[in-house]
Write a structure and sequence with these properties.
This protein is of the alpha+beta class. It folds into two domains: 125 residues, N-terminal domain of MutM-like DNA repair proteins; 122 residues, Helicase, Ruva Protein, domain 3 (Orthogonal Bundle). Helices cover 26% and strands 25% of the residues. It has six helices and twelve strands. A hairpin with a 3-residue loop joins strand 6 and strand 7.
């Protein structure tokens, strides 16, 4: 599933290709994508310039005049650019044609992605109860996340209302690097350790963004490559174990995260 780093890479790619280009045409290739949108929603974005992009957590927003187009990539969503006269990429669900000759396609093999039109991003974030974006998280956020919490550190990291953008692989990565067992009650971490854990998640996200990460294509030194039960841990002393926490498959080293 695309997480914060992958969505940020897509956001930057969009800006590199079509920022300040005019939107000339919208083709909805999968009607399921727009069933919840108002009638004639396209009129709010067509013939307007893409003047701004914004990402909060895993949510991406594109601003056209007075309206934001919101994209959520679900399990397998992605953005692909082709010339407007070229064939559509496989699994395209939406195509946006710009006046610079490029077509931006929202591809999504498993069709869990969503789209919406939004007047104010802040109202959308409030409705979704999303916390501060991970890359903007502060020391106070770390304190609020973990203090007096009985649930696992892994579950806390995944709560988007605390800090938005930490997904399953990123949480496992941060816990591994900080040598914290994922089932450790959050409230048992010292303020300093909680801050280090959140800072680690932020560093991992930045590393992945700088490496132009796409899901499944992570830097070689990432723990994510070892996330399979009974694999040898990079520490050389233990085996990778798997448990279910917060409804998600969670991988950790039986030795260095004991």
């Amino acid at each position: 599933m695309p997480e914060l780093p992958e969505v940020e890479v897509m956001r930057r790619n969009i800006e590199a290709h079509v920022l300040h280009a005019g939107l000339r045409k919208v083709d909805v290739l999968d009607p399921r994508l727009t069933t919840s949108l108002p009638q004639n929603w396209e009129n709010a974005v067509v013939n307007n310039e893409l003047s701004e992009t914004r990402r909060v957590g895993k949510y991406l927003f594109l601003f056209f005049g007075k309206t934001w187009l919101h994209l959520h990539f679900g399990m397998t969503g992605s953005i692909v650019f082709v010339p407007t006269n070229d064939h559509l990429p496989k699994y395209s669900r939406l195509a946006l044609d710009f006046d610079n000759g490029l077509r931006m396609c929202f591809t999504d093999p498993r069709t869990f992605g969503k789209m919406d039109v939004v007047n104010r991003v802040e109202s959308f974030l409030s409705t979704k109860k999303l916390g501060r974006d991970l890359l903007d998280a502060t020391e106070d956020d770390a304190k609020k996340m973990f203090v007096n919490r009985k649930i696992s550190a892994k579950a806390i990291l995944l709560k988007q209302k605390e800090v938005a953008g930490i997904g399953n692989w990123l949480a496992d990565e941060a816990l591994f690097r900080q040598k914290i067992h994922p089932a450790t009650p959050g409230g048992s971490l010292s303020e300093r350790k909680a801050q280090h854990l959140l800072d680690e998640a932020k560093r991992i996200a930045v590393e992945a963004i700088d490496a132009d990460t796409h899901y499944g294509d992570f830097p070689d030194h990432f723990f994510v490559h070892h996330r399979k039960e009974n694999n040898d841990c990079p520490c050389g002393m233990g085996k990778i174990e798997k448990v279910q926490l917060a409804g998600r498959s969670t991988y950790f080293c039986s030795t260095c995260q004991s």
